[in-house]
Amino acid sequence: MARLLAGADLFVHNMSPRAIEGLGLSEKDVRDISPGTIYCIVTGFGTNGPYAGRLAYDDTMQATSGLAHLQGIVTGRPEYVKSAIADQTAAIIAAYAIMAALFERERTGRVQAVEVPMFESMIDYLIAEQMGSSAFVPAYLVFPSFSGRDGALDHGELWQAGCRLGEADAPEVTRASSLRVIG
């Protein structure tokens, strides 16, 4: 492992601090072997705080972030998104943070450690749309969709307005749609 780390730009993992230390790959261990390597850890709830060290999975993050609740607004009971959206969101945020750390190292020579908690990633992902009436009035909107003549989904007037912005001919919509308030 030391041979691999010696020339590595990046070391990334999603293990608990205790587990990674047991393997001799803590941030300090990696820095001792390769001082220029960017160290990235993806955790469930971060490395500090009351939930640090707790195991986290995609469904755990969907539940604790409130996403499962939001998915269930229409049905009246919490539901999981049928995708590993929390894992994917944390991975995307980690990729951006790693790119920023690589850029910083290239420009200044300063090497950074990157920590990406899945929980905070999901809160960041959701908060813009889910700040209630302070972001959107009314707070919960459903964009109805239906099959168009070409088999694609569209949103009625919203689709036609988008086409007009792009100066394309908007296909005729056979059924008018509008936003409706849930809750």
Write a short abstract of this structure.
The chain has helices at 2-6, 17-22, 27-33, 58-65, 67-71, 85-108, 118-127, 157-165, and strands at 10-13, 38-43, 113-117, 141-142, 146-147, 153-154, 180-181.
Q: What is the fourth-level CATH superfamily of the largest domain?
A: Crotonobetainyl-coa:carnitine coa-transferase, domain 1
Query: How much helix, percentage-wise, in residues?
Result: 40-55%
CATH class of the largest domain: Alpha Beta
Total beta strands: 7
Secondary structure class reads alpha/beta
Inertia-based shape: elongated
- How far the N terminus sits from the C terminus, by CA atoms, comes to 55 Å
SSE blueprint and pairings:
Layout: H1 2-6, E1 10-13, H2 17-22, H3 27-33, E2 38-43, H4 58-65, H5 67-71, H6 85-108, E3 113-117, H7 118-127, E4 141-142, E5 146-147, E6 153-154, H8 157-165, E7 180-181
Parallel strand pairs: 1-2, 2-3
Antiparallel strand pairs: 4-7, 5-6
Helix pairs in contact: 4-7, 6-7
